[in-house]
Amino acid sequence: MRLSELLALCRRELDARGLPSFPEAEIFAAHLSGVPRSRLFLEAGRDVGDPSGRLAEIVLRRASGEPAQYVLGSWEFYGREFLLSRDTLIPRPETEGLVACAIATLRGAGRDGGCALDVGTGCGAIAVTLAAELPRVKVVAVDISAGALAVAARNARRAGVADRILFARADAYSALKRGERFDVVVSNPPYVSEGDWDALPREVKDFEPPGALVAGPDGLSMIRRLVGGAADHLTQGGTLLCEIGETQGEAVRRLPPGLLCFAGVTKDLAGRDRVARWTKDG
Q1: Do residue 132 and residue 23 come from a single domain?
Q2: Do 276 and 241 contact (CB within 8 A), yes or no?
Q3: CA-based, 20 to 30 A from 208: which of 76, 125, 144, 278?
Q4: Can you give the residue range of the structural domain that contains 12?
Q5: In Å, what is the CA distance from 175 to each residue of 54, 117, 131, 207, 270?
Q6: What is the distance between the terminal CA atoms of the chain, rounded to a whole angstrom?
């Protein structure tokens, strides 16, 4: 089977199930052939064997509602491929903005050789990206899920940064030593409210870990904990960065900052509130 034939077969099989053939046909063809998606048309005549049996399994799983990212077992984030499991959230483009804020904060403060804490690391997308983009930074990454930490550790090894990331099982700050300080604390915490849970797409509700998504009646319970405890773990002049829901900007502005100073909300590329910032002034 030529690559062009595989791509056409992917389209037909997805269309037959009422599934979106774009961009998923290209994504699945690239996965099955080992040819990068950007080269599918350049190598259209390449012989790729007969992966139709594997394609049938992929389409069956997609037809059950399972997200493509879990079907494939990996997904791209910030230009790198990250392994995934049902213990981890699927990394999303919005979180790339959170990482970009963390990188800019560390570089702008001249702390690109400092320490960062990633709370709720999941597949390790934030922690691994910070370590890869800032080669002198050391990262501590915590998560309450042992399964997620195992996936994150594999991703750190694949990216060649495992020697600069310490993974620990913890609920927020619970495993940190007294007096341990970080230049940046960054988190993509659960921020879906209990009332909004039922409105989420089936692919999210039925497959992604609820504990990494839902945070109490207003969606802010974990963010409150992070703000309330951050002063004990930030250096003077350090920064707490939290991803938030697009409608939560005003709510986070009203949160008691404790010993921190609220420093504003950064919008994502679509102009929606996305990253909240607090600082510990010296």
Answers
A1: no
A2: yes
A3: 278
A4: 3-64
A5: 42, 12, 21, 28, 36
A6: 65
The verdict on residue 71 lying in a domain is no
What is the per-residue pLDDT for 175? Answer: 86
Q: Which of 11, 30, 64 is the last residue of a domain?
A: 64
Cα separation, 282 vs 66, whole angstroms = 48
- For tokens 């961009």, the residue is 23
**CA gap 145, 166 in Å, rounded:** 15
CA geometry: angle at 163 spanning 106 and 127, to 5°?
A: 45
Domain count, the chain: 2
Residue with tokens 């595989």: 6
CA dist 191 and 222 (Å) reads 7
H/E stretch holding 140 reads strand 138-143
* Residues 6 or more apart in contact with residue 189 via CB below 8 angstroms: 119, 120, 215, 222, 223, 226, 242, 243
Domain assignment present for 81: no
Model pLDDT, residue 121: 98
pLDDT averaged over 10-residue windows placed end to end, the chain, 282 residues: 95 94 95 94 94 95 95 96 97 96 92 93 98 97 98 98 97 88 97 92 93 94 96 96 96 95 95 97 72
- pTM here? 0.94
Burial class, 23, CB count within 10 angstroms (exposed 0-12 / middle 13-18 / buried 19+): exposed
| Same domain? 38 vs 93 | no
